[in-house]
Amino acid sequence: MIFTPTKLPDVILVEPDVLGDNRGFFMETWHAEKFAAGGIVADFVQDNHSRSGQGTLRGLHYQVKKPQGKLVRVLSGEVFDVALDLRKTSATFGQWVGMYLSAENKKMLWIPPGFAHGFYVISQQADFFYKCTDFYTPEYERSIRWDDPDLAIDWRLTDGKAPVLARKDAAAAPFKDAEYYE
Questions:
Q1: pLDDT exceeds 90 at position 182
Q2: What value does the CA radius of gyration of the chain take, rounded to a whole number of Å?
Q3: Has residue 136 got a pLDDT over 90?
Q4: Using CA atoms in the order 87, 33, 48, 94, what is the torsion angle rounded to 10 degrees?
Q5: Which residues form the domain of 118?
Q6: For the segment 73-124, what is each residue's pLDDT rounded down to a tens digit?
Q7: Pairing mode of beta strands 108-111, 141-143
């Protein structure tokens, strides 16, 4: 496996070894010892799977208490995945990084606690899978506005069309008004 820190060094791109032949392929998606050697130490407590249609944008989500680290990957389709640093004491506070994740490239992204996360579906449909280090707790969930001008996230929108949003994401707080981590 290859573990590559992104421009936000705590966010790590994971490229698994993929063994393939005429039958298909095999890859490890979690191996505690290999991931620890690659800089990712995590105890996962919850797995989530979502399916979304093209143009759907989910995020930017985080929990103000019980923050979740997430190991994310795409099982079918393609997304543009974004992590936003919300740790006030971090040298990269308020900065974001985005990566294309797809069933074809099989890449994963580690997003540690202290970050907001979101993704935009590029393909006709995408199945998105992620492991979490803490349980989903709705009362602590927050959203930051996906199109906040202070963040200037380039979501790679299909044909420049406005994304399909959940009600909570359409009403999300601007970055300047968000709750951050110490």
A1: no
A2: 16
A3: yes
A4: 20
A5: 2-177
A6: 999 999 999 999 999 999 999 999 999 999 999 999 999 999 999 999 999 9
A7: unpaired
Question: Residue 23 maps to which CATH number?
Answer: 2.60.120.10
Number of domains in the chain: 1
Distance separating alpha carbons of residues 43 and 114, to the nearest angstrom: 16
**SS3 category, 3:** strand
Q: Is residue 119 part of a domain?
A: yes
pLDDT at 69: 98
What are the catalytic residues? 61, 130
pLDDT in tens, 15-57: 999 999 999 999 999 999 999 999 999 999 999 999 999 999 9
Q: Which residue has the tokens 């959203």?
A: 143
Query: Which 8-state DSSP code applies to residue 39?
Result: T
End-to-end alpha carbon distance in the chain: 32
In angstroms, the CA 14 to CA 38 distance is 9
- The confidence score (pLDDT) of residue 49 equals 98
User: What is the value of pTM for the model shown?
Assistant: 0.95
Q: Which residue has the tokens 């496996």?
A: 1
Residue 131 · residue 47 · CB < 8 Å: yes
Structure tokens at 41: 């130490």
Is 182 domain-assigned?
no
Instruction: Flag whether 137 is in a domain.
Output: yes
Q: In this structure, are residues 12 and 38 in contact, taking their beta carbons and an 8 Å threshold?
A: yes
In a domain, 36, yes or no: yes
